[in-house]
Structures are given as structure tokens and as C-alpha cells.
Write the C-alpha cells for this entry.
Amino acid sequence: MKKKQLLLLFFTLVYGLAFSQNTPTINATLSGKIVDKTTQEPLIGASVLIKGTTNGAITDVEGKFYLKTGQKLPFTLVSSFIGYTSQEIVVDKNTIIIELAPDARQLGEIVVVGYGTQEKKSLISSIAKINPKETQTTPVASFDAQLQGQAAGVQVNTFSGMPGEGVRVQVRGTGSINSSNDPLYVIDGVFANNNTLSTINLGSKFTSPLADFNPADIESIEILKDASAVAIYGSRGANGVVLITTKRGNYEAPKTKYDLNVSQGVQWADPTRMWELTTGPEHATLVNEAYTNSGIENPAQTRYSFATRPFQPNTKGIADPFSTTLRGNPEDQQTYDRLSKVFRTAQIKNYDFSVRGGGKSIRYYLGAGYTKQEAILRPASFERASFKFNFDTKLNENVTFGSSNGVYRSFRQQVRGGAGQEAGHLLSALHHPTYFPFTYADGTFSRGSIYESIDNLIDINTANISTTSLRYLGNQFVEVNVLPNLKFKTSFGLDYNIYNEQEFFNDQTQIGGVLNPGGYKNEVNTNFSVFVNEQTLAYKKTFGKNHNFSALIGNTIQATNLKVLSATGFGFPNNSFQQISAASNRTSAQSASKSTLASFFGRLTYNFDNRYFLEGTFRADASSKFGANNRWGYFPGIGAAWRVKQEAFLRNVDVISDLKLRVSAGTAGNQNGISDFAALGLWNGTAQYPDNLTSGDKSGTAPSQLANPDLKWEKTATYNVGVDLGLFKDRLFVDLNAYYKYTTDALLYVPIPGSTGYASVLSNGGEVSNKGVELAVTSTNIKRSGWEWSTTFNIARNVNRAEKLVSPITFEAREYIRTQEGAALGSYWLYKQLYVDSETGNAVFDDVDKDGKLTAADRQLLGNLIPDFFGGLTNRISYKGFDLNLLLTFQYGNKVYNFNRFILEGGGTRDASRSILKSQLNRWQKPGDVTDVPRLTFFGNNYTIEQNSRFLEDGSFLRVKSLSIGYSFPTRVARAIKAEKVRLFAQGTNLWIFTKYTGADPESSGSALQNRQGLDTATPPQPVGIQVGASISF
Amino acid sequence: MKKFIVILFLCTGVSLQSCKNFLEVQPLDQVSDEQTIFDKTSAETAVRGAYRGLANLNYSGGFQNTILQSGADIVSVNVGLTDLSVTNYNLRSDIPFLQTYWNNNYNTINRTNHILEKVPLVNDVKLTTELKNQFLGEAYFIRALSYFDLARLYGGVQLFLTPTKSVADKLGVKKSTQAQVYAQVLDDLTKAEALLPSTIVRNRATKFTVYALRARLYLYLKRYDDAEKDLNLVLANTNYRLIKPFNLASGTTESVFELTYTINNQNPGFTLWQGNRQLSPTATLHALLNDPKVGGGRKILSKLNASNQFIGSIFPTNTSANYVIRTAELYLNRAEARLNKSTPDIEGALSDLNQVKSRSEISNSTATTKEAILLDIENERRIEFALEPHRWFDLVRTGRASAVLKLADANKYIFPIPANEISTNPVLEQNPGY
């Protein structure tokens, strides 16, 4: 009651004052200028609005505005501009200069942290904030791929040039071996699934669920890196946390804002980096040479000799390129180029439209987007339609309801990536021998011994693989100010994904013609959901003058459900029938999985005088994935900071505008990427067998997993020290961090003796350390009227080491990769080719144990794909209406195994089954030849050692990731078409790369599977692209 | 405002209460260990699971591929490096397929060990003693076959006769000698013989299947009299007869023990020969099969396609049966046993050999001496089992690998123990020469 009376009194006074100033001048116009209070620079695009009306205007390039008012003076004018404090002034004349002061809050930037926000200046943790406007110059479908080079210590690698495919994001190295190394993605408070739902055979390629989201809807991206920041995410924070905040409206927005962004472009594979294959005659010569050499080397055998060389005239006089022998002389061979059949100049287009605004008690953001990207590899494409609706309502001054909703549909025309019998669009084009004609004599498309014919694969009427993801991600919340300083929030979040996959191979193909006669169709429906319910209670109060406290407690429960239903059929009446009901042979399968997580968490912060900061966080998590004894995990984090600048001795040192020292320590966990029932001993029910010849299959069971009741969290302790240094009024800002991460109880599939009946058991069998330094520098080089140049640079180094392992673990079918105590995770495990003996032409390998034989004991770890350092450099220049943004990314010291070269430099021993690279022509031919390509032969070690170090290459690179140039029309021109801002732009992507790597792209990896990365095969390079577009704001 | 706090605490209270249930999630498509073998049905399904292990693990496509290529009459179409290691007899212990075959056999062995330990404890009226015995006998048979193959492939291996409950069970155990493993196989087969019925079921183990396998084992042990005895027991039964013309279809009297495949569990050997086939008969083998005097009816095993390629035709579809033991082998085994036994029976041997020859419409053997007949048997087996993984084992068993394959280094007659197996259990010793 008391409050209301006071309010009434207040309003009476205000009104009284207003009426008493009786100046009844009537003015028809008002003109003015808005400038920055400190620099006196004009502010372009600032808005003015007569309070209580809809009458307003926007300033032009000179900061000027002009209003027809028809209003009595004086009236109140509200002027506002992003980054500045809004101002209300009473106008009593018809020309005016308004000085807007930069928003203090903006200066001390707001950073989103777990379950809240903090001011950057009071931040203790190491958090990288990324402005999506800067990253969207790279036209890739998925926001995670746009993060390369943007934040120190965040290594992002795009494994392939296919839109919407998996991207590797690593925050401060890798701590896990079999548990996931991906950071946790939280979008508007919902734990977003980033594990692929892909089940069909794409040859170890995976679609990225993060590509479902439209980057245009993102307001900010924060990457939490150190323990005090991630501990509040407890059992899932160990690999860092990526917080995505989407755009919302503004209460009392002066005007509804419409944004339209249209762009279109083309992409292609850099021709200078494409694989160079031998011609038909060259191929034939090499194969014949291998046969001839083998005959001389080992005359006892009869299989390989000059007499049996495959390329020689047929006795019947007709050369048959498809026969295993007698295909005509080398010089008679033709050359067939399949690469140009599969690669194309791809079209990409993107349309985004958004409406943003609000009223007194509501605010809203509505975004619609459509993207279509053809891949440079035929016939793949990615298409996404998205709709985002964020809405908040203030029910009264204490209660707010809010809702964030995104509906997404992603359609992908897929290609198979991998090797093997049934696969490979790129491999079919690249690995088919070049002398091999496109068609058989009867006109049907020819295929080699391994791959499907490329002509069949690129025709979607023949081979059609597609996936459709339908996804909802949203969050509904209620926020209540329980007491003036106490805020309660409850929210319900849902990530629901219906993922449909279809593949059809008609009867012309290998899969649908021979392996599954009569056409083959497979369809998989996956339903995936994450449900999160969360309550938080936040308290904030200042005691006395300088004691600032805040506290947060909360709980969350989460349930994750996965259901997969698939049906397969073959034997269709004809190729027009593609529904499984029409198939004469039908099978189906079903599987399901579920996991739950319950958690409690809290955070306490205190600072004295914004000078000394303390923070403590805690989380307790219980997961259904672990045995009852180890269900709960506890994750504490603490941090402290000293803002030295606030001390008396620095306050007057003008050069140093900010200086803060930070230190933090804490523990976070990891349980991602392991099976929902990893702790249990399991039997599966898929081992059917008949009881007799006529019974048909009857149900059968078999042990499938060895129990490990002691299974528990993987824990990572992180220690971080950091310095924030601002110089020259923060025009140069340096953020330097050093960290040490130590993972214990690392979840890994410990290889166990196969004699147990199992290959491995998931256990907490390892310890891994990561240590590193990160440096981020932001510099405003020039800031003058209409002329601005700023540079940001980041660089990071991470040293990774497996500290403790029960036994070494090898990965990949050919065990190229090994994780072993004392070395970095995922090192290449190879036989080291020292040189090629110039007298004999034989490859000489390092005989480590000096026993005169080449055995597994001679294999050694020869580097890995972890770079010595990596980072990015961005330059932004704007001059008048022009703007330019140039992003360079780099990585140094990482190794790539050029698997394509390994396969295609096989010394002619692979004969008709694979093509041969031009580099094979450098083989040793006669005594005295100095080369590292050994003599061609089927015998000895020259071409039979699979894990040959010769194909391990330096993967360092410097890439011109993106360059964009834009021009914004002056406001008066824009206004002519009733727009506020019109910007035209052109941007180029992957324009240039400097690398010694001989493959197409040093970032390529045949597999996105963890621990299997770094083998370059079956992967198209990232495309070079050019795009033009326009963005218009109304 | 206090209401909100009350509600909050209520919420928290409720979530704590239900927390325990909320966190108990049971798998839906698999069952945990305790509920595996406890009644008749679960015993039955576990036995079927062991057969599926034989069919899809032990006799995987890879296994057939390696053994066929080692026998030198079959070559890889897609010459990979591993293939060169096989055909050059230059295997290294880190070649992954060595681990695969090892794991597959032990996986099946673990399945049988579960059955052998748990089935005797089952208390279910529906599980009669007869049925119990049958299941146990089948498990003994499958375990015997798996150890037999392990011993043929790797020589001496570790013997495990109980199911794995934790990794520690199996650590620190040294390998037994090859002779000890064969002795275990013999012991298992003898137990199986006592337990199994004398019915005729061609895709499950019966007494006859046990005799047939035990006879094969006796040849390896050079106990020829015992081998003949066992073979007589099977061949006396009219349900095991050669069929004419030569044909490897399922369910005929040719079939002694075959593995069954369905759309859900496809024959892993199918893709070796069909589609983007991995294997091809050599020109020599193709010529022999298509020579009416040598191959006769068996010419159907290697056909010439439109592109003049040799297509091995053993599995017409992806659900074709795979023979483990067939009647022709029994005759050829008996011929060998009769020649080598304490009092050689030349006539009996020739009669057995000629049965197989005449079935394929080729003329009788003209050999007269023991050595000549043995050579004839060897050549007959080469043709008869052209696409089945026998020749490599046969040549090693009879000591002919050196002469035929020009492989003098006897260390190469057994494969190396997989490298990872030694690194995870260092008491295991590598085979000599690797």
C-alpha cells in the first residue's frame, strides 16, 4: 500500500511540473544531429522518437536527422543507438545536438556464463565471446564450422568439403580417448544434441546435427574454457561448453526492425590442388614394370613376370581392357577422366528474413531462413529451412514468461564416403584406373573390381541416398522476482529430432543388382529427444558500499531417448517401385536406448569494490549410465581475480586502461559419447539360428558386452592463470591464458585379450594431460571519422600426452593410429622408411630392434595431427560506406597421413583395381636413381608395408579463409527505397592456401570418428567459393 | 512470494524422491548378464547364438579369403597389401585379420563356455535331461571345432573352459601346446558324442557330426585307425551319400554339417565371389576345373563371364549354405586313413577315392602305390574343395606345403599370434619366426 501511495505522489509531482512549464510554441519541424559524447563523432543510424508517439527518424551518414513534428514544444525526445545509453531530453527548440554517452554496460561487455550473465570486467573465468556477425562471412552451413580461427585455444577443423558434414571442435586439446571430445552445446538453455543420428552406411562420414541450426538466428556465442566456467556444467563440462544465445526482441523498441539478407554464389574445387593421375599408357607401363621386375626378382614363381604382364596384345588380336590380362600394349591405352564427372561448380544460395521488435510488455524475434548448398561433389547437396520464434512477455513487473522456439528441416542428398565394396562417390572417380573405359561393349556402365561405376553413382535415379532431419529445439520459461534481489526461474526445454534416411539402389547397381538383386531400398527412422527441466534461484545484493554478493542454486533433470526403426527390402517388380512393401524380400530392425541425468548446482560470487573477485561453483550429477555405486559425481570450481587497474597506483596510469589477473581451478566431468548401458554386462538377441533345415531362423542370444560395475565419470581437473591487459583506452587489448588440464579415470575401451571372447571393455583406464597457452589480441589500429581498422589475432599451443594407460590402444582397420603412454593421443604408428637404396631400388626401413627383420616391433610413433600451434588473424577495415573483412587461419606442425597417396602409389601392384598417381612415375628404375619411391615389385617390403611413413606428410597450412567486401549506401539513398540500411557485399571463401601437403586439403579426414582422424581419404577438399549478396534493413 | 519458495522446495523434494527411479534405466534391446540362461527357452537361444558364432564369426568371409589365398589356387581380384602378405607368406603379427580370426573363435568359445557352465544349473521342468544333454553336447562340439581351427591357424593357444566374467579371468595364462589343444578338442568331442542324439540334422551337431569332425582331427593326429573307425560309423548310414551330379545345395545327403544363412544373417562368403567379387580362381585352377578329365561335374565351380573373368560359383545367393563337413571329405579322409593305417588298405582307399571321382564323371584312379594314391587324393581334394578353405591346411598337415607351395620355412605353417594379444597379455609367447 505504501508503495502505491508513493508512486501516486511521484506521478502527481511529475505531471504538475510538466504542466507548470507552459511554453505553447507550435513547431512544424525538428532537425538535429546525434554525436558520440566523448569523441563527438556523428552516429550513423541512431534513432530518435518523440515520446508517446510513433513519430521518429534515423540519423544519416552525417549523424543528422530531420523530423516533421506537428507537436507542441516542449516535448520529450527519446534517442537511442546500439552501444549507447538511451537518452530522454526535453526539446524546446527546433534544432538540437544530442550527445549520446557510450553505454557503460557495453564497454564492460556482458558475457553469457552458465546459468546467467556476467560483466566482462568482473569475469574470472576464461571465456571466449564470438560475435556471429564476424563469423558468418564463411558460407558453410553450420555455425561450428564458422568458428575456425575465431577463438584462442578452440581448434576447429572441417574434415571435408561437404556441406552439413561433421566438423571437429576441440577446446583446449583432447582429454578423452573413447568418451567424446566435443564440447557441450547449450542453445538457449537446452542441451543440444551434437551426436550424429546417421545410421546408414556413408563410409564413416557423418552428418552434423548442428547444421540444423541457422547461424543467422544467433546473437552470441560464448565458449567456456576453464574450470571455474565449466564446473557448473559438471559431468559434461570437461571438453568446454559452447553457449549459443539466439536473438530476442527489445522491450519498447522504437520501431520494428525488418532484416533481409540474400546471397548467392558458386563454389568449386581448387584445380591446382586436385589429384594428378597417370594417363592410361603411363598406368599400363607402371603395372607391366612391376610384373617384369617381380619376375626377375623371384624367378621361382610364375604369377608375376614379363610373360604374364597384363598389358600386352591379346592372342586374338582384340585388346580387352576389362580382362585380367592381355589388354593391349601400354601405348594403345586410352585415358578416361572420371574426376571431372564427379566434381562440379556448385551453386549456393541463402535467404534470411527476420522481424525484431517489442512493446511495453512484450518483445519478439521472428527469423526465417532458407539455405541451399550444392556440394562440389555430385550429386550431394544440403538444404535447410528454418523458422525461429522467440517471445517474452512481462506479465507484471515481477513475472516474465518467455519462449524460444526453433523449427528446422534439413534435407541432404548424400554421397557415400568410404572405401570398400559398396562405396564411394569420390573414390569411384579417383580410384578407378584411368585406362578403364566408361562403358562395356554392350553400353552399360563399367565398374572396376572395387567400386560402383561413377556414372551410376552420380545419377540419383540409379543410386539415391538422402536424409531429412526435422527438428524442434525450444525452451519455455517463467521468471519471477520473488524478492527484490531474488529471482526464481523454471524452464522446460526440448530438443526433438525426427531423422529419416533413405537409400535406394536400382537393379543397375552393384548393391541393387547383384548383392540384393532386383533393386535395394533401405529406410531408417530415428526419433531422438532430450528433455530438460531446470529450476534456478538467483540472489544478488550489495552490502555496505563495496561488498557485492551473488548466489545461484538450481537443479536440473534430463532424459535422453533414442528410438531407431528401419526397414530394408530388395527384389522390386521394376525400378519404378521404391516402396518397401513392393519388395519380395523384406527385413526390419528396431533398437532403443535411454539415459537420464539428475543434477544440483550452485554458484557464489563476491567482489570487493570491483577490485577483488572470488567465485565458487559446484555441481553434483547423477547419471543412469553408471553403476549404482558410482552414480553421483561432484564437481567443484573456484576462481579469483584481482583487477589491478582499480588500485590507487594504477588508476592514474593512462597508458594502462585495464589490468586484471585471474586464477582458477576446478573439476569437470565427461560421460558423452559412451553407450547408455556401458556399465552392464549385456547379451544381444540378434544371433538367430535355425533348429533344423526347415525351421528357419529362430531367436538366438549371445554375449555382447563385458560388465564393468565400477564404471564412473571421467574427471578433468583444470588450472588456469590469465591476464587481461588493456592499453591506450583499450584500443589494444590482450588476453593471455595458460592452463593445465589433467584427466583421470579417462573412459576408454581398454583392449583386452581377444581370448576373453570380447575385444575391449569400457573402463576408466587412463590419464591424459593437456597443457597450453592462449593469446588473443584485439587492436583498434585506426578509429577516425568514417575510417576504422581493427585487427584481432589469436594463437594457441596445446601439448597433449597420455600419462597412464593400461596398454596401448590402436585404431583404424590397419592400425595406423595408436595411443600409448608418454605420447600424444592418436599418434601415427608406422614403419619408418629411411630411404630408397640407390643401388637396389629397395626401400630401407628403420629396424628398431635390430633383429634384421621387419616385424611389428619396428613400428614407431611418428607424430600426430595435433598442431604445435594454431590460430587466426582477422582484419576489419571500414571506410565511409565500405567495409572489408579478411580472415586468415593457420595451423603448424600437424601431420596428415596421405592415405589416397598410399593407395594410389602402390607401385603398380594394384594393377586394375586402382588408379596410380603421377608421383609414382618418380620410382627407382636403375642403379644410381635417387628417389624415395622404391622399385616396383610385388615382393619384399617395397609395396607390402601398409603403414609406411613415406605417406605421412606435414599438414601445416595458412589459409585465406574468407575475404568479404561490402558497401553500405548512404542513408538518404537507402531511404529512397524506404530502407534504413542497404549493404551490398561480395565474399570469397578458401581463396588461397599455403601448405606443403600434396593431397587436396590438409584438413581432410576420411573419418570423422574420434581417434580415426588424420587419414586423408575419400574426402573432397573444402571448396573455393565466391558469393554476392545484399542485406537490407527496414 | 513465499508461495514460490514453498513450490520450489516441493518441486525439489519431489525430484529427490523420484530421483532413484528416474536414474534406473534398463536396456531395451539387450539383456543384462544375469538374465541370460535360466530356463529352457533361454538355454535354447544361447545354443543358437553359439551356432551363429560359428556361421558368421568363425567361418567369416575373411577367414575363407585368407585360407583360400594361402592355398595358392585362389587369388585376390583387388590386390591389397594384405593380400600380398598372404600370398608372399610374409605375415606380420600386426596384420589386423589375424586378430579378427582369433577374436571370432574365442568369442564363439565364450558362448559355449556360458552354456556349459549355466545349462546344468537350470531348473526348469520343460528342460528335460535329453534336451539338456543335447544342448551341452552341441556346446562341446562347437567349442571343439573352434579350438580345432585355432590350433590349425595359430598352433598352440590358450585353453579357456569357463566363461569370462572379468578380464582378470584370462590374464597371465600361458598358451598350451598344439598337441594339448588337439587333446582338448578330442576330449570335448568325446563328451559331445556321449551327449548328442543319433538323429540326422544337417545344420546342427549330432553324433554323426561328432564322428566326422573327430575323424578329421585323427588325421591331424595321424591316428589313422581311429579315423577310419569314426568314418565307418558315418558312411555306414545311408543318410550320408554322394550325390550326382556334383552340387553343393543345402540339405542333400552330401551335407554332413552345414551352416545356415538367412536374409537377416547373410552368408559372409557370398561377397567373396559375387558382385564386386574379392576372389577369383587362378587361370590354372579354372582350367583344371573345366578339364572334363579332371574337373568333370565340378566345372560349375568356375565359370567364365562376359568379360572373360573367372567367377567362382560356390554360393549362388547370399543365403546359400556353407559346408563345414561334407560326404566327399569323409570319403577322401577315409581313403587317406586306409592308406596310412597300421595295415594299409589300398583297395579300400582306391574305392573311396573313385567314389568321389565317379560322382564327378571322371575316370578312376590309375595309381597303384600308396604314394601315388596319396598324391592322387591330394589332387582330388584340390579340385573337389576348390572354393572351400581346405587346401592350405591339407598341404601343411601332409607335409607337402614345401613341395607344392615352395614354402620351405616351416615356421610359416602357422600364423603369428596377433600383436595386440601379446601386448595385452605379455605372458603369451610369439610363434617362432615372427
In short: Residues 289 and 298 of chain B are 6 Å apart (CA to CA). The first strand of chain B starts at residue 30 and ends at 32.
